Structures are given as C-alpha cells and as structure tokens.
Amino acid sequence: MGLKETLQKWFGTAKETAADLTEKAQPHVEKAVQATKEAAEKAQPHVEKAMEKAKETAGDLAEKAQPHIERAKEKVSEIAGDTSEKAKDAGSETADKAKDVAGEVADKAKDTAAEVAGKAKDTAAEVADKAKVTAGEVADKAKSAAADAAESAADKIADAADDSTG
Question: How many domains is the chain partitioned into structurally?
Fold first, then answer.
C-alpha cells in the first residue's frame, strides 16, 4: 500500500469519526441550548418583579410625601392669613413686615417641600438601583447555569470522542 492510499484511509477514518462525534454531540448541544433558554425564561419574571417593585416604591414615596407638602401649604396659608389679619389692625408698616414674614415662611415651605421631594427621588433611585442589582444577579445565575450546561455538554462530547477513538 502506498503513501497516497494510507493518507486517503486516514482522512476517510477522520471524516467518519468527526461525523460520529457530531451525531453524538448534537443532543448534548441541544440540551445546553435548551438549559440556557430555560434559565433565561426563569430569570425573566424575577427581573420584571424587581422592576415593578422599584416602580411601586417610587410611587409610594411620592404618595407619602404628598400629605406633607399639602400640610406645609396649609400652614403657610394659615400663617399668612393670621399675619395679614393682625397686620391690618396694626397698620401698613406691620402689614409690610407680615408680607415679608409670609414670604419667608412660603420660601421655607417650598424648600421643605423640595427637600422632601428630593429625598423621595433619592430613595426611589436607591430602590431602582437595588432592583437592577437583583436583576443582574439573576442574569448572572442564568449565565452561570448556561455555562455549566455547556461545559457538561463539552465534557460529554470529549468523553464520546475518547470512547470512539479508544
């Protein structure tokens, strides 16, 4: 037998072995793909739930801040009204001072309302960040499960290759 025939025999054997390995590997690859899809599907509700929770919390914070803002507005109106009535009795100079005081009170109320709104916004941002972290952790677990499944499939393919060559 010549060199040409030997090489043809080797290449023919290699082609057959590769075809056999491909057939044996196919179910394992399909399982790895399926495991990845399932992990992603399982993670999806958790990601959605985390995002919904963040939205709910932001809404709750805004609702909780609203009564404080309303009370501040009412208090300013009361103080301004009381001050205005007292000022009418005391004369125009006192009325000017009352307007100044009412203006200061209104400014403080605005600042307080802005501060409450800012705190609500910051808290909502923190909740949203936590939701993102939770979603990221779920995605990382899904990636890890998919990687494990792929590695398992690769090991099975390698074992099948060893079995067919050995």
Answer: 1
